[in-house]
Each structure stands twice: as structure tokens, then as C-alpha cells.
Design a protein that fits this description.
With 90 residues, this protein is an all-beta fold. The chain contains no helices and eight strands.
Length: 90
């Protein structure tokens, strides 16, 4: 397994509308977690809604490893959601 290094951290505090991530160049892995409120996400470049998209549950870290991180969009399902994202690369 190749070693990974921490590239960046991002906190999304305004996800009332579908929001894209700010993905650093060289990212190969993302760890993401919703804080306070659940969210929904899509990774096909289409905006999720509060009822459509895969759930991002509060306090559960999801690990994503694929090539097109720039296609990810996130939206909160209730007001006051925060999303923490950690970006890793090789």
C-alpha cells in the first residue's frame, strides 16, 4: 500500500444549497463527515436535493477513493449542517 500524505482540510459551513468541494491537486482519498445535521451527496456532477442523493450521516466518517472528486456535490437535509473534509494524496 502506498503511503499517503495529508494535503488539506476543508470545513463546509454553508451547505443550504448544493456545494462542490475544493479538491487539491493530487487528491487520491477523501475522508468526510457531517456534523450536527445529516446531508446528501452525489458524485456524478448533478446537484443533490434534501430528498435525493446518498445520505451522509452525522458522525460517520465516509472514505471515498475514486478519480473524479470534483463531481461531488453536498447539501444539508436540515439547517446548520457542517461538513468536515480531509484530503489525502501520495
Amino acid at each position: 500500500m502506498a503511503s499517503r500524505k495529508l494535503l488539506s482540510y476543508q470545513q463546509l459551513t454553508n451547505v443550504a444549497a448544493a456545494t462542490a468541494l475544493t479538491v487539491p491537486a493530487g487528491t487520491t482519498r477523501i475522508e468526510i463527515v457531517a456534523i450536527a445535521q445529516a446531508c446528501r451527496w452525489r458524485a456524478d456532477g448533478t446537484n443533490p436535493t434534501i430528498t435525493v442523493g446518498a445520505p451522509l450521516l452525522v458522525g460517520i466518517v465516509q472514505v471515498w477513493e475514486f478519480e473524479q472528486f470534483s463531481l461531488i456535490r453536498i447539501i444539508e437535509t436540515a439547517a446548520s449542517a457542517t461538513v468536515d473534509v480531509v484530503y489525502y494524496g501520495t
